[in-house]
Design a protein that fits this description.
Its EC number is 2.1.1.290, 2.3.1.231. Pfam families: Beta-prop_TYW4 (PF13418), Cupin_8 (PF13621), LCM (PF04072). The strands form eleven sheets. Strands 41, 42, 43, 44, 45, 46, 47, 48, 49, 50, 51 and 52 form a twelve-stranded mixed beta sheet that branches. The two termini are 58 Å apart. This protein is α+β, with helices and mostly antiparallel strands and 1055 residues long. It is built from 24 helices and 52 strands. 23% of the residues lie in helices and 27% in strands.
């Protein structure tokens, strides 16, 4: 007789004997479910806000993922929903059963009953997973009202284990998928007779041994009227592809290796896997191919996605989609199906397609050992300049933690520095997805770009020679990013020169552009009239002129629906009485029979002798193979031919040709192309960065240039070159230096001008430090001289200040003392160079109340203004505004829990900041906000070798600058010279979580941390009475769990 069960109460499971190693492996596999469900909840809350929160019972704390993960998981979820919906819609006269194999916490049945109620009237959903997971799932689900209501409606009935819940429309079954006999017995007993069955396995059976998964696939084919939907990973270009490398390392690190790809790397192999195990019809497509199919995802759905969350991570999205696939198999014939199975090309076929051109692709002195290889950056803008000696530079782009405003400048080390061309970094805001185009070999034009996908730029800057400075020129209208540009010869007002031709791009509002513009040094921007058909609007396309020609090609790019375009256009500029562009469509002229993937987004198209060369990017519906990444476009005949090149990448140094910068060296008849930067965030599995410089040249070409890199900061100054610099290796999201005595590369805090309170709100939300310039702080910047301050504050006013005998105050050693001085004594002392420092306190209750400039220094408060553009965020959340005055002494490393802006009033100051993720290396004592490490020590890395793994940032402040310091960014400050005067404004930015009670300095830790420290004490007390080694064993395990969770949360909030 069956027993009635309460799904909210834990149930007794039959005892099962598992080997410890197998049990641990099963636990790791079940652990992957937690991260996946948190990401799916992010998708559900974002894209389906009007639906019940089906995921809340499993992950009560909502964590919004970044746009790439949101869209990737949306595509995963949509692909499964699409397959299940197609199955339910098929009218075959049978009842429908959907069996979710390895269901985890997925609430798929409840989502379907909510969205597609009419399709589910005759459908039964069966969840199958490990018994312990199903038990927990039912317990958590019981807390959701929709679950209880659904079971009541579907006539819940008593059940015996391993069936945890039984109803007319839903069953929850606890069964190991390796136990096929038990699974078959349960399903035959529970499924309606004569049913059509769909087995669904979403990234679940790949964690099984391949032999076990194959047995499951074969067994499922024996069930009458069965279908199989499989979604998991693939390796379309093998395990050496950079994305594949990162993905495989990620799953191995989690101790959950994905086994299926060991034998079934390609879609062709997956299709054969099912075809040889009883499945008569097999359709398999990668997720990027599904995305690219407008019949699967319609325009309205795509517009909804873009409207909900601005998105521009297209290359990374394509790499993710190309490494996951959806397979649908049936064990009966499928005549009349609308879909076909795209077969992969065999190696023999691949060798026959296209021709191979004898070109060389080389990597110069990998990582430039022992020279600096350049800043890790992607989606910067590269350009070549030459004033007798060629050089190559890359500006801006996205780095590991922030967007950049600096320039990597690659020069020939054999040429005297004095003889090198001069170059400065443009004094503009950090940006990415912009263009810089060389003009006449010695000048260049920078156009547009973006910060975030909905914040594009219109400003343009012209590089002059011979002084290498940038001057601002007329803006391009409208502002844009991901446009494409090329230089062309032009005659204007009787003067022959080179101009810059611009096409397409995207605006901050999401509009995709189809306009052509030309910039001429003598007259600025001019619109271009089109003769012939106008190419459709697009962004991220490939555009280039032929060598010293007014003709060129345009192809690829992406339309407003997020689909890569496959058309090819030839254009010719005519500048007689008017500037016109004659455009002819040449898609039909591609060499017959060629399937080489020329249609791409994010590729570079450059002149290469009499031909053009196409480099990198991502293709329309699959991952580019190694052989297809670099193609030569031969236009010498009526047909367009795409030819592969011979490559000689150093072993283990294959670059990821996405987000890179490339340029042609100007003095070598376009016979050498230099590539720098690039890489990608590999979904949630880490990042891959190209380090060093690559080059392309023909075989027999004279010796390649050697390159040495220098970094130009945004102020136009040359970053000092470290005395010892060695190999920098990529490891996940970190750049790790490998010599113990080397100097760690310091990121420069970006300098921005903002235009609205919304701009500042975005900066606060992003929680990354930024220097804001051009703001009005009031007359204090000019009036706060030492004499003025003494007069206004009062010569005899008594204050408590820090006095130090050293030039660095050390909190641990307490090498300073607190002394009382009159304001005159203090100011006269710091002017003389005495090592004193004031951080003002409340004049009424210094040990109880935070200080405010208006209360404690009313005679000078009116001189200082919090800029109007910042007040909407700060005024409502204001905590304190201490006055800081310092002589030549550095403050110790510390962090603040409150966000703050440091407004530099007088003198200059340099700050070193460390992101929150570096806290594990900075030796903060328990409960303390001041570090025990002197990060300015000349023997820093010898004394603290783990600081090699930190990510320091540098901010150089001048009068009028405002530095935003996010919460928990550890920092130290040093005046550059003379007296430094600043006002520090603290405010609450986290919304919740602050500890109740007194907080004088704005550095009282969050309530959760204070509670956690008490919990730690309780945990340690719980081990009292156990032997030391055993206590250490479990405490080490708990510490490791906390560390893993900290890393996971840190990665979710990463750049």
């Amino acid at each position: 007789m069956e027993k009635a069960t309460d799904p909210s109460a834990p149930q007794k499971r039959p005892p099962r004997k598992l080997r410890p190693v197998r049990a641990k492996r099963d636990d790791s596999v079940m652990g992957t479910n937690d991260s996946s469900i948190a990401s799916k909840r992010s998708v559900s809350k974002l894209y389906y806000p009007n639906e019940p929160d089906f995921y809340e019972p499993f992950t009560p704390k909502f964590q919004r993922r970044n746009p790439l993960i949101n869209r990737g998981y949306w595509l995963r979820m949509y692909a499964i929903e699409h397959a299940v919906r197609r199955f339910l819609e098929k009218d075959d006269g049978n009842a429908k059963v959907v069996v979710n194999l390895g269901c985890g916490y997925d609430p798929t049945p409840f989502e379907f009953w909510h969205r597609h109620a009419s399709l589910c009237q005759q459908a039964t959903f069966i969840d199958v997973d490990y018994p312990q997971l199903i038990e927990k799932k039912m317990h958590l689900l019981s807390k959701g009202p929709f679950f209880q209501e659904a079971l009541k409606e579907w006539n819940q009935r008593p059940s015996d284990l391993p069936v945890y819940v039984r109803s007319d429309r839903y069953l929850a079954v606890g069964c190991d998928l390796r136990e096929l006999a038990a699974l078959e017995r349960i399903l035959k007993a529970e499924m309606p007779s004569g049913s059509s069955v769909l087995f669904v396995a979403e990234v679940s059976i790949t964690y099984m041994k391949v032999s076990d998964a194959d047995a499951l696939i074969q067994w499922a084919s024996t069930i009458p009227n069965s279908n199989f939907c499989l979604l998991e990973q693939c390796l379309p270009d093998g395990p050496d592809h950079p994305f594949a490398q990162t993905m495989l390392k990620h799953f191995h690190k989690l101790t959950t290796p994905i086994h299926a790809v060991e034998l079934y790397r390609s879609l062709y192999q997956q299709k054969a896997r099912f075809a040889t195990r009883g499945w008569k019809s097999v359709i398999v497509r990668n997720l990027w191919d599904l995305w690219s199919d407008p019949t699967v995802i319609g325009p309205e759905q795509r517009r909804h996605l873009d409207k909900t969350e601005p998105f521009d991570e297209w290359e990374e999205f394509a790499l993710f989609g190309g490494h996951y696939f959806l397979l649908v198999a049936m064990n009966s014939s499928c005549e009349g199906t609308e879909e076909t199975a795209p077969l992969e090309v065999s190696k023999d076929q691949e060798a026959r397609e296209g021709r191979t051109m004898r070109c060389q692709f080389d990597h110069f002195k990998p990582y430039f050992k022992p020279d600096f290889p350049g800043t890790p950056r992607r989606f910067g803008a590269g350009f070549a300049v030459a004033h007798g000696h060629p050089s190559f530079a890359v500006h801006g782009g996205q780095s590991i933690q922030n967007r950049l405003a600096s320039v990597d400048w690659f020069m020939d080390p054999d040429v005297d520095l004095i003889a090198q061309p001069r170059l400065e970094a443009p004094i503009i805001g950090a940006r990415m997805c912009h263009t810089i185009t060389t003009i006449n070999g010695t000048n260049a034009l920078l156009v547009g770009g973006r910060t975030s996908p909905n914040r594009c730029m219109a400003d343009c800057w012209f590089l002059t020679e011979p002084n290498g400075q940038w001057i601002q020129v007329e803006d391009i209208k409208p502002g844009r990013f991901r446009h494409t540009a090329t230089n062309i010869p032009i005659s204007s007002t009787g003067l022959s020169t080179e101009a810059v031709l611009i096409f397409g791009g995207k605006t901050g509002s999401g509009q995709v552009l189809d306009d052509w513009k030309v910039w001429i040094p003598t007259c600025g921007w001019r619109d271009v009239d089109i003769i012939g058909d106008r190419p459709p609007a697009r962004f991220g396309c490939s555009l280039s002129s032929f060598h010293e020609s007014t003709r060129g090609l345009l192809f690829g790019g992406m339309d407003s629906n997020g689909i890569v375009l496959e058309d090819i256009w030839e254009w010719e500029l005519m500048a007689e009485s008017e500037i016109q562009l004659r455009v002819v469509k040449r898609t039909v002229d591609v060499e017959p029979g060629s399937t080489v993937p020329y249609a791409r987004i994010g590729a570079s198209l450059l002149p290469f002798g009499s031909d053009l060369i196409l480099i990198g990017g991502v293709a329309k519906n699959h991952v580019l193979s190694y052989a297809d990444e670099i193609l030569v476009v031969d236009c010498s005949s009526n047909n367009l031919r795409f030819e592969r090149i011979e490559r000689s990448d150093p072993e283990g140094q294959r670059p990821l040709l996405v987000g890179f910068s490339a340029a042609v060296m100007p003095d070598s008849y376009h016979m050498e192309i230099v590539i720098s930067g690039g890489g990608a965030v590999c979904f949630s599995m880490g990042s891959f960065w190209n380090l060093g410089c690559f080059a392309i040249g023909r075989v027999g070409h004279p010796k390649f240039y050697k390159w040495q890199c220098r970094v130009l900061e945004a102020r136009g100054t040359l970053q000092a070159k470290p005395s010892k610099r060695d190999l920098i290796a990529n490891k996940g999201d970190e750049i790790i230096a490998k010599k113990e005595d080397m100097t760690i590369k310091t990121e420069t805090i970006p300098r921005l001008r903002i235009n609205s309170a919304e701009d500042f709100a975005q900066i606060v939300t992003a929680s990354k430090p930024v220097i804001l310039s051009g703001l009005n702080l009031g007359p204090c910047v000019h009036t706060w001289t030492p004499d003025y301050l003494k007069e206004k504050i009062g010569a005899d006013r008594s204050l408590v200040v820090h006095e130090c005998s050293d030039n660095q105050m050390k909190f641990r050693d307490k090498n300073f003392s607190y002394i009382k001085k009159t304001f005159t004594e203090f100011m006269d002392g710091v002017v003389r160079g005495e090592k004193m420092y004031l951080r003002s306190l409340s004049s009424d209750q210094p040990s109880r109340l935070p200080t405010k400039l208006s209360d404690d220094f009313p005679t000078i408060a009116s001189d200082f203004h919090i800029p109007d553009i910042l007040t909407p965020i700060i005024s409502e959340n204001l905590h304190s505004s201490p006055l800081r005055i310092s002589g030549p002494v550095s403050l110790w490393l510390h962090y603040d829990v409150l966000a703050n802006i440091l407004c530099q009033i007088r003198g200059s100051k340099t700050l070193i900041l460390y992101p929150p993720s570096d806290v594990k290396y900075l030796d903060f004592p328990p409960g303390g906000s001041s570090s025990n490490i002197n990060v300015l020590s000349p023997t820093l890395f010898k004394d603290h070798p783990n600081l090699r793994y930190t990510h320091p940032h540098r901010a150089s402040l001048c009068p009028g600058d405002v530095l935003f310091i996010p919460p928990m960014w550890s920092h130290t400050a040093t005046p550059d010279e003379g007296v430094s005067v600043a006002v520090n404004v603290f405010f609450r930015s986290l919304g919740a979580g602050y500890a109740a009670g007194k907080d004088v300095y704005g550095n009282r830790d969050l309530q959760a941390y204070e509670n956690g420290r008490r919990d730690v004490a309780k945990i340690i007390k719980a081990f009292k009475g156990l032997p030391g080694p055993q206590s250490q064993f479990y405490l080490e395990r708990l510490a490791a769990e906390l560390r893993d969770k900290a890393d996971e949360l840190g990665n979710e909030g990463g750049a």
